Amino acid sequence: MRNFSNLLLDLENAADTSVKIDLLVSYFRSVDNSDKISTITIFTKKRPKRQVKARVLTEWAIEESGIQRWLFDECYNVVGDFSETISLILADHSNDTGRSLTYWIRYLQNLEGKDEYEKKLAVLEAWRQLDSQSILIFNKLITGGFRVNVTKNLIIRALASLTGKDQSEIAYRLMADWDPDSSDLGSVFNSEDAPENISAPYPFCQAYPLTGNPSNLGKIDDWVAEWKWDGIRVQLIKRKGRLFIWSKEDLVTDKFPELHSLAQHLPDGVAIDGELLPFKDGHPLPSSILRNRIKSKNVTKKMLKEAPAVIKAYDLLELDHRDIRDTGLVDRRTKLEELVNSILDQDLLQYSHNVRVRSWKDLDSLRKKSRTRLVEGLVLKHKKSAYHSDAKRGEWWKWNADPFSIHVVLMYVQIGRGQRIHSYTDYTFGVRDGNDLVPIAKVVARINDNEIWEINSFIEKNTLERFGPTRAIKPELVFELHFRGVQPSGRHKSGILLLDPEIYRWCREKKVQEVNLLTDLKQLIQSNG
After folding, report:
1. Single residue among 143, 162, 188 that ends a domain in this structure
2. Are 396 and 449 in the same domain?
3. Best mean pLDDT range from 112-116, 197-201, 309-313
4. Is residue 22 a part of any domain in this protein?
């Protein structure tokens, strides 16, 4: 456990990607196979099931430490992290005899099925053995609250360096449906040892954001343009008579029963890259509908009726059980179009046609009208490009529609994470609703340090109330917010959800009376679908 906690501290303080990779490689070399697998499991989102609620942990920590509830709350206000607060108020026993990360994960797994008293005894026993930093990690294993900036691509690069295998092979293995509890490093990453996994998808090929003039890419005739649909990126796979649907994170076949009939129409040994969309009456619906379905335990008849799903096919990765990703894009898409046209159920699987124009100027005109087509913009792909296992710069570009813009006022703040752990950088913004202000978006501030310092100074002088780690501040600071889109939402007080909001600038010259109205955003929903 101590090795893992030290790794997290080092990663938190490392800004350079190459340093993070070196830290991961060094760590993987220093721990046994079981801890290697446990670490990969945590960083690739296959985390242990939560066994104890945060509220209950709080009561146990207050009892164990002997402090008053008000003092715990004050500590939480300052620290801003639940797991860290508990680790700081508990005595640092440091009686751990070097037990591994895997030991403690299994320790928590063994709590399943036990009553609350048994769980309490087990958690208290762990707290009495671990030092403060290890208690912090233990608590995060319980709550699933890891926020370390370690991407899957970082893990892939580190494991490629460790094993000597190609990054694409590592990515492919990580996507497979391997069991963290019964696997070791060899069974996951060695081709000769790995059991056959007929469902395994390929690593998704990504595109870079396009900035500047697209004419810098050369002749438009060398490129394929297609609509960037706003859905869930998936791979549709059929092998040995079985159908599999993979998102970037997980196997989601059971969430889309309306697509299961495709198994009867697709030939065996195919893998298709596409976008899964809620589609009704010939038009796409908000993608949040499908994401809510994925989160639901059961797919109801109401869900199926309100948001039937289709797949817009972008690319063909496997045909007749043969990996064709290195084939040129034009050839792959020709084969894909032939495949889609040959099946009977084209309402469920549709070919995503190219956008054909004669000039970059004409294409830009279409891009600016993307929202009227309920798409996010365009994707540009070089005609000779392969389907790479990572984003190979220069061959695939995403050219998004221009973002929406509104003016908002800062209402609530929280302490940030990582290098800004001592600054307020988690901001909640609001707009006007009659005479009131209503929150509409929470954003991590990506502005310069001087502005962070100024805003923090304002916060200290203008805090109105405190709610745990959150401060309500005097609503005076106005910002321009950019966002990709807006959707109705029954989960938010405002009734709306902003898509990918980010701070564009601090508008020092504007007053709170100048921020947008909630009705402006609701009208935007109506005008865009």
Report:
1. 143
2. no
3. 309-313
4. yes
Place of tokens 């290098």: 419
pLDDT tens sequence across 352-372: 999 999 999 999 999 998 888
Residue 369 to residue 401: CA distance in whole angstroms:
8
Asked if 246 contacts 281 with a C-beta cutoff of 8 angstroms, the reply is no
CA-CA distance, 1 to 133, in Å (whole number)? 9
Contact at 8 Å (CB) between 74 and 67? Answer: no
CB 301 within 8 A of CB 341: no
Q: Which letter does DSSP use for residue 420 in this model?
A: G
User: What is the spatial distance between Cα 431 and Cα 411, in angstroms, rounded to a whole number?
Assistant: 9
Kindly report the average pLDDT of the chain as a whole number. Answer: 86
Residue 173 · residue 37 · CB < 8 Å:
no
DSSP 99-128: --HHHHHHHHHTTTT--HHHHHHHHHHHHT
Full domain range(s) for residue 235:
208-400
Nearest CA among 111, 107, 101, 131 for reference residue 52: 111
Residue 197, pLDDT above cutoff 80: no
- Do 252 and 353 have their domain in common? yes
Number of domains present in the structure of the chain: 3
Q: Which residue has the tokens 């893998």?
A: 271
In the block, residue with structure tokens 């164990």: 64
Stated pTM of the model:
0.70
132 shares a domain with 280: no
Task: DSSP letter for 434, please.
Answer: T
